[in-house]
Structures are given as structure tokens and as C-alpha cells.
Amino acid sequence: MSMNNQGRPTGTGSAGVAATGSSLLPNEPLLFEIGDTEHSGVDLPDVEIDGTFLGGFERRSEIDLAGLTEPEALRHYVRLSRLNYSIDSGMYPLGSCTMKHNPRLNEKMARLPGFADIHPLQPVSTVKGALRLMDELAHWLMTLTNTAAVCLTPKAGAHGEMAGMMAIRAAQDAAGQGHRRVVLVPESAHGTNPATAAFLGYSVRSIPARDDGTVDVEAVKVALSPDVAAIMLTNPNTCGLFEPEVIEIAAAVHEAGAFFYCDGANFNAIMGVVRPGDLGIDAMHINLHKTFSTPHGGGGPGAGPVVLSAALAPFAPVPFVRKGELVEHIEGQHLGRITAFNGQMGMYVRALTYMLSHGGDGLAQAAKDAVLNANYIKARLERAFSVPFPGQPCMHEALFDDSFLAGTGVSTLDFAKALIDEGFHPMTMYFPLVVHGAMLVEPTESESKQTLDRFCDVMLDLAADAKAGNAGRFTSAPTRAPRRRLDETRAARSPVLTWSRPEELPQAAE
Amino acid sequence: MRYLPHSEAERAQMLAVIGAATAEDLFARVPTQALLHEPVNLPKHSPEFLVEAHMRALSRQNVAAGDGPFFIGAGAYRHHVPATVDHLIQRSEWLTAYTPYQPEVSQGTLQMLFEFQTQVAHLTGMEVANASMYDGSTATAEAVLMARRLTRRNRIVLSGGLHPHYRDVVRTYLGDGPDLVCLPASPEGQGDILNRIDAETAAIVVQTPDFYGHLRNLRAAADAAHAAGALLIVVVTEVVSLGLIEAPGALGADIVVCEGQSIGNPLNYGGPYVGLMATRKEFVRQMPGRLCGETVDADGTRGFVLTLSTREQHIRREKATSNICTNAGLCALAFSIHMSLLGEAGLKRLARLNHERAVKLARMLGTVPGVELLNKSFFNEMTIRLPVPAAPVVEMLAQAGVLAGLPVSRLEPHDPAVENLIVLAATELTTDTDIEMLADCLNAALQGDA
Asked: Which of A138, A167, A172 is nearest to A309 (CA)?
């Protein structure tokens, strides 16, 4: 096999084996097609019970859960896993997602019994190490951001947004400013920002981007009014650019009596280089699963601690650690509890392990390398691709639009699918929305120059081929993946969301 | 720095290609006053063995649940997780994949999610399930919001048997007000929700087994809710119970949410866990979170994709059903693998074993003078009343190496009615010796106290 199969989840020799059922690229049957309700991979004693304490609520309905013995289970999940692309198998340049290396030391530490096998409601006297760990993590996050407090508990970035915006609402309610019902959101924002604002009952006022892809402080000033509660601004923004007027924007927002919520999804570009607190932010969530290397796990679990300014700190949700003590109840205006227990402890362990490994110096170097890598890709590709906001360095993401594909019959989607055939995971497509046919490339600091060069070579080759009129290579792609393009319309039109026994299928298909 | 591939020479080569003199030039758009001119005041990078030593030292300051007799439940349960589960979820292809937005190279995750959704639907007796939520408590809050959308009504009534933390989370999501009715704690299992349903009620929320361990009559709750045009949301914090107790879906539930931690996931001091959410097919377009659906590829081969995403924030923005984006993928995988290993036969055996252990615990507690068992029914968890405040007794037992359960006052500090109560759970890991030690220590503590 050629080395150009870099990143293929399962490297076999030639194209076309995907559908053959080869053990190297299997078409794995569903669990329910190989298991049954009798088999089990767990030995447990079969104890007798009587119904004395069951109150007549014993199960009478069938469950219909398929079981597998241990060797069958291993094979099923190993074979399934090989249908996945992953960071460990190749470059995963998904913009906005920060698909960096996930160190295995993190995994090892998270599995220490003193972390993995402790209960959230154990007596506090038996979890002193957990509290210290949370304290240390909080110290790192507050130091890196220069903020007064951090709420660790949010379960993911969007949950952190919710916590931060709730703290803002609580602070304004406490100050008699409850009439502020509008949140400003730039057009380039992540979808979670307007969704969070709306979720909390705010109406969303959109701020246009100017021609260079950044937010104009004058546009913010125009949009600010006495009913504005906050601005939700991503910085570096989703176009991969640092907002040059962010300090002026913060001042204008504060001047108008509103708060500055910063979406910290792109903190990887600036950690150890810029402290968001110095920019005037009041709240910012930090995706531990992006910036601090906790694994994405196929879509979670994440962790979204939110740092808070001194003005918002009193409104942080419980629980939190203060002076080494776990605070579970406080009186007053705080916003309550946003999840049952103490947040994503397993992710705290991994993130702190990562921080200690890198150190403050290593984190800053990582940010600089992430920015270097993105600019390197931009420099190598910009003559063949189209850069929507030229003439300025990018941060940790290089953004292209689809104007270079005009007239080729190739779309951004086609281009991304063709990249799969070359052994790379596609970049983020069609986001941010402010750029037509957006391709957002985030290499992270984890990629070597060699890998970046190979990626750029492939990208240039694809661009040349598209312009040479070979649209078929793109519109038929992928042909060298476990599946060809999937019919998403069919999936949405008549949703099949669970497996049904074959005899039940006509009913399920209605 | 072991995680960073570039040499200084390579950095210089790359800067030359970019046309920048220094790395700092790439930050030219950052206002000068915002750039740090000296390193942050944090420790420098550290070799793996030193980091490991530091983390191990922290971990040793905690008492692990496995270190001695352990009876804490209350929404998180200590079960055995087969070694296969943890091995498999650490495979690179599971651990380091992203959300399956490119389905052609994500069929592993997608098929797993389809299997997971099916397992959850079957387990709860519902027609459809989503691809997971953060945890049981946030899933409960999301279910309440979903019920409001479905009924276009606002009032929500929470049973007094709902986990107090879950109640608090719902309160945070909804805000206090007349449309959120939180019934007082019901440690005796008393049912007072049926006569609180009115024509304004969107949904009632009933947990079973409830926070105090009682099994609740879901059929009666469903009938009363439906008669008033309201929905029944059922909360299950111990999913193993569904191997022995009737499925909520078979009793009329409209939305079922569970904390799925018990299957496949360690205690982790509270997270990450995995929220399960299941409902009727007709309600699916108001469901939050990711959904995986079956389809075919261009060759007609079966495959799976994320679907119905017009409900979600990345498409709908401020009109989305929820702001949720990330879910609990890897925890859902652990759940699904463990559930596959159990299968129906194994889950039922596990559930019976848990109940058998709990019966043993209940009977032994009944022999301790001064201890009153409040439950007539339970699965693997129960509430006892002591003649004295519970928290100091639990602390005393912890000092003796026995983690004796949860004093309810920790969650309900302002409710004198629960001051003397302890909620205790048994699982398949609870041994006869553990139970005897608990009874002995409890006896000694109460005698000493008297």
C-alpha cells in the first residue's frame, strides 16, 4: 500500500474494498443481527428473589436487548471502530473543533481509583484530593485568563455559555436591570450563541461583519441600547481572526451597562499569549475538550468551565470550591445548580494533567505553533484557493471560500469529500455562515511540518484538478471510504431511529 | 515539549514561507497592550513521571469507593464495569474521533449510536431515543422544556420524590415562578402529585425508584396526567432497575429520562455521565439533542447519518429546540458496550442481584435498634430514619472506613423533616461482610450517641 493512505482508518491496498466485507474494512452487522436475548458476556449469579419489596411493579413487558459473549463483543466494537477516522490515524483539520493530540497520560490519570472511583456525595472529608484538584485547575484557568472566578461545572461549551449568560442575567436582575432583554450576536457566531441567548428568553440582535471579517466597534455602538444585556463575541472569531477592536468593543459594551460574554472556543490560539480578562471580558467558557486536549470521544463528553469577572463571580452556580471548601448551598442571588453533581471531574483530571505537562511555557508555545501552522497552510494555499479576508495573518484557523471553485462544477462539499479519498478528514464546511462555501481549516499545534506539507500538496493537487475540469473526481467522492455518500434526505424524510425486527419493518417504514 | 512536533529550524522555515520575520508578527492584529510581555506565572513544562507523581499524590488524598464498605447511591451508583468496556473505549478510533459530521468516515460512531438509541428505547419501553444528553439532571430539565413545547402549556409539577439536585437543575433552567410547582420532599413515598394536575399543566415529573428508593405507581400518574391533557415525564436515576421493574413506556410515560451512569461508567466524582432520553415517535421533532438515523449510500449500502438536524442549534440558531451541541458520546459508547455484554439475560440477572443485596441490607438494618426503614418498596436503594441527626453519624462512620449512605440534609439543609434520614444503596458489589460492618458501626454509633 502507498504511504499516501495517511490517516485512513484501516489501510488496505486498493480502493473498492469498502463494500466487500473484508475483515480489514468490514461491513459490520448490527448488534441485534448478531446477538440475541439469551447470550451474555457477563457471568453473574442467578439469585432467587421474591416480590416482598417490589410493590407489584415487576417488569412484565419484554425488553428485547441483544447480548454478546465477550469475544463477540470485542470483535463487534473493534470492527465498528475501524470505520471511524480519528486524530490518532491522521490529520483532522476541523475548524472550530481543535482536534489536537490527546495524550494518553491524561487517560491513565483519569483512571486512578482516587479519581474514577469516588462518589460525588461522599463525605467531603474523604475527597480532599478532588477538591485540591479542582482548586488547581481553577487556578490555571483563572491565571491563563486573568479573571476573578471560574465555574467548573458546565458539562460542555454550550452549557458553559448557558451558565455564563445566566450569571449575567442574575447580576442584572440583582441590579434592577432586568429590563435588558436583547443580546448582540455577530453573524459569524457559532450556532450555540444565538441558541443560548434564545434559550434564556433573550431576543437576538445580529451584528454584521465588516469586509475584513471582524466586528466594527461602531456597528456595536449602533446596536447598543438600554435594553441590551450583553454581547456574545467569539475571539479569536470564527473566521480565524483576532478582533482588533475587542478592547474598544468591551469598553462600549460596559459603557452601555451591558456585559461582554466571550465564546472561548478558539482559546487555543491565544492561551499563554493573551489573557481574555485583559481584553475586558466578563465571562468566557473554555472547552476543555478543545483547548486542553480531553478527547472528543465521537461527540462528547465535553467540559465547559466558564471564567467570570469580579462583577459576575457572586452569581456563579453551585457547587464550587472556595478556599479549599466545597460550597454546595449559598443564599442570595446566585443562579442555582446547572447539573446534579460536580461537573466533569474526569475531564478536570485530564485537563490538569495536560496543563502540568505543557506548563505555562508549553501552552504559550502550543498556541504560537497552532497559529504558525494555520498561517503556513494559508501561505501555501492562498494562490490556488480564495482567501475571503486577505492581507492579514490569521490566528489558528485558515479560512477559504469557494470562489476559486467558480465554474468548475465542484462545491465545497464535493471538495471535502474528495479530501477523504486522499486520506484526510475534511475541514469544517459551510461555517462560518458569513463566507460563501466556507472551508475552515484548523491544523492545531499537533501536526508536524511534514504532515502539513503533505496536506497542502493534496489540497493544491485537488484545486488544480478541479480547475482542470475533472469534476467527476469530486462529485463521485468518496470512493475510498467505508461508505460512499449517504442519502441524508431519505434519513430525514422517513426517519428510522431504532432497529426493528425484520417482520416489523413495514410498520417502521411508514 | 513532547507534544509539539516542530524544531526551531522548522519553525524558521515555515515563517519564511509565510513571509513573517518572527512568530510574534503573526499576532500583529492583537492590540499591543493585550499581549503578554512576560510568561504567565505558572509552572514550566514537566516530564511525564513528575506529572504522574503529582496527580497520584492528589488521588491518594481521596478515599475510593472500593476501599471499604460503600452504600452511597442517590443518583450515582457503584457497579462493576467489565474490563472489556474500558479497553474498547480507549481505542483511538473511538476516543479521538469527532462528532460524526462526515458520515462516510464515521460509520463506527454512527452505527454505535443507532444501536445505543435502540437499546435505550427498548430498555425504557419507548419508541425512540436520542444519541444522549449530558446527564440525567440536565436531560430532565430538557424534557420539561420539551413538554412545554409539545403541549403549549407552561405549568410543570415536580414530584416530592424527584432527586433534589434534579429539582434544583429544573428550577435553574426554568426559573422560579408560579409555573413551576415543586412538591415537598416525600421520604415516606407518599403520592401527592395526582391532585396537583390542572388544565394549565404541561407535564408532571415522577422519578422511580424515587430519590428515597420507593417504587412509584406510574400507571396512575400517566392516567391522571393524560386525563388533563398533560404529559408524564418519568425519571430513572438507576437504570439497572429497568431489568427488574416495569418499563415506564409500558405504563404510559410520554418522555423518559435516565441517568445512564450505572451501565458502563465509573463514579468519576459526578461526571462525565450519560443522560438518556426516550419518547414517543410522534414527539421526536421536539426532542433536543442529536439523533442518528438509518439510510443508504450511493451504492445502496446501509449506513447511518445524524438526522433531523433542523431541530438543532447549528442549523436553527436561535430557533433551535435546545442549545445543546456536544453530547456524551464516549459515555454512551461505554453504556452500549456494557449493555451488549449484559444482554437481556445478563441485565435481568444483574437487576435481581442488586435487589437481593438490597433486601439483605434492609433486613440487616431492621435489626439495628433505633433504625427505622421507611420503604415498603424499593429496588436497590432505601431510606432509614435515625433517632438522631444523620449527618454526624455518617461522618463518624466515614472516619471508621464505612461510607454509609447519604444524609438527606446535605441536599436539603433547610428541611427539618429530613434531618434524621439516610439514603442507602446496595449493588452487586455489596458483600455480606460490608452489610454486617455497616450494621455493627451504625449500632455502635447510635449506642454511643445514646
From this structure: A167
| Closest of A260, A361, A376 to residue B36, by C-alpha | A361
The pLDDT value given to residue A26? 60
Contact A339 B136 (CB under 8 A): no
Measured distance CA(A142)–CA(B126) in Å, rounded: 44
> Hey, what's the cell of A322?
472556595
- Omega before A301 within 30 of 0, i.e. cis: yes
Query: Regarding the domain delimited by B67-80+344-449, which CATH topology (the fold level of the hierarchy) does it fall under?
Result: Aspartate Aminotransferase, domain 1 (3.90.1150)
Q: How far is C-alpha B243 from the chain's CA centre?
A: 18
**3-state secondary structure at position B203:** strand
> How far is CA A24 from each of CA A18, A19, A421, rounded to the nearest angstrom?
9, 11, 17
CB-based contact, A260 to chain B, within 8 Å: no
| Contact assessment for residue A356 and residue B54, using Cβ atoms and an 8 Å cutoff | yes
Whether the link from the prior residue into B413 is cis, omega within 30° of 0, is no
Of B153, B149, B156, B214, the C-alpha closest to B183 is B156
pLDDT in tens, B101-157: 999 999 999 999 999 999 999 999 999 999 999 999 999 999 999 999 999 999 999
As a whole number, the mean pLDDT across chain A is 92
* Topology classification of domain A107-353: Aspartate Aminotransferase; domain 2 (3.40.640)
As a whole number of Å, the end-to-end CA separation of chain B is 61
Shortest Cα–Cα distance, B151 to chain A (Å): 18
The rounded distance, in Å, linking the Cα atoms of B108 and B99 is: 11
* pLDDT surpassing 80 at residue A329: yes
The domain segmentation of chain B, as residue ranges, is: 67-80+344-449, 83-338
Residue B49 to residue B53: CA distance in whole angstroms: 6
How confident is the model at residue A111, as a pLDDT? 98
| Nearest chain A alpha carbon to B397 | A123
Complex ipTM > 0.90? yes
Task: Please provide the DSSP assignment of A271-283 as one string.
Answer: TTTB-HHHHT-SE
Domain covering B83-338: architecture: 3-Layer(aba) Sandwich (3.40)
Whole-angstrom distance, CA of residue A434 vs CA of residue A420:
25
Round to whole Å and give the CA distance between B321 and B287: 7
How is chain A split into domains, by residue range?
Answer: 107-353
Q: How far is CA B93 from the centre of its chain?
A: 25
**B94 contact residues in A (CB cutoff 8 A):** 77, 81, 84, 86, 297-298
Measured in degrees and rounded to the nearest 5, phi and psi for residue B124 equal -90, -10
One-letter amino acid for residue B39 of the chain: P
Query: Residue A140: helix, strand or coil by DSSP?
Result: helix
Cβ(A343)–Cβ(B270) below 8 Å:
yes
Helix (H, G, I), strand (E, B) or coil at B442: helix
**Cβ of B319: how many Cβ atoms within 10 Å?**
13
Q: What is the pTM of this model?
A: 0.95
Residues B18-37: tens digit of each pLDDT: 999 999 999 999 999 999 98
- In the block, residue with C-alpha cell 481521596: B62
Strands B406-407 and B421-425: antiparallel
Task: State the DSSP code for A124.
Answer: G
Percentage of residues of chain A with pLDDT beyond 90: 88
**B196: closest CA of chain A, how far (Å):** 24
Mark yes or no for CB contact A126/B270 under 8 Å.
Answer: no
Cα of A244 vs its chain's centroid, Å: 25
Q: Match 499591543 to its residue by C-alpha cell.
A: B32
CA distance A420 to chain B (A): 8
| CA–CA gap between residue A64 and residue B42 (Å, rounded) | 54
DSSP A482: S
Distance CA B384, CA B371 (A): 6
CA A401 to the chain's CA centroid? 22
Interchain pair B62, A158: CB under 8 A: no
